[in-house]
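---------- Forwarded message ----------

FYI, see the DUF7730 domain-containing protein record below. Original note from H. follows.
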Amino acid sequence: MAPKRPQRRAPRGPAPPTPDFSRETTPVSSAYPSTYASEAENDTENEHPAAPMTPPDSGATAQTTPKKSRRVPEKPFRFLDLPSELRVEIYALHFEGIDRVVDLDSDNYKRVHKKLGILRTCRTIYREASHVFYSTHTFRIFPTQPGRFFKTKKPLLARLNTNQRRSITSLELRLGPGWNKPPRGWVVNPALGLAECVNVRQLTVFVECDPSDNFFKGFRKADGFYEAFSRNLLDGVLAEMPFVDRVHFDAWSSVKKTGGMMTGLLEVAEARGRKICWGPERQWTDQEEEEPAMAHLQAAMAFLNM
């Protein structure tokens, strides 16, 4: 076996400058051995190879990922375990913000439809919440809001189902809009569903204008036309609901209690044997009261464009 030749050591140059660790931070890659052979590796006479040099601690701390704590799933609140009386109060708070009188209006999608989303939860909540909604609001028999629903042939009551109509406790018949040309959809028939509103205890007749006033002379279709139309409409409503024992009358300040409009409506209610009550707007009483002198001006401002 041939003897090993002694390897010549390369002349050592000047020592590299000592790095200033206070100014520079040694990169992470310097902690690993270099890919180039060092002098200790080339020295075959050394039985123990030199260990890689570890730079002194430069003050940089290694980032450690904190252990995530195990998330405990939250248990759902058992709403149906509450007493039914408390659930009814919660439903009433949920439906706050909806107008007291519900009409067929294009804005119902924003104000009413989103609130009624709670009815899609389950059958129990549907039954309880729907009863609270329909029993605590007044529903208008015929639409009065200007727009595409004003002349519809299918009013709001006709769009409800039987259970919803049976939950209603208050209805409103508003007269005045369309006094020169009433919509064709303002017809009392079985499709309207008044006979199914068996729990209605209050029927409010609100009069917005009286076309028999001299101010409407020259604008109305004919003398006594709208007054007769309103009397027939109220008579048809009362005929469909014999279980309603009283009628609440109210009006704007431009309407006179002794005018042709109110006189005809009161006669219909008396002929049907219903008790006459008065609403909070005019605060009428059974006693004769002096009517306001400038009442017809409000009628002009409100219904000139009808």
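H. also flagged this: The chain has a mean pLDDT of 81.
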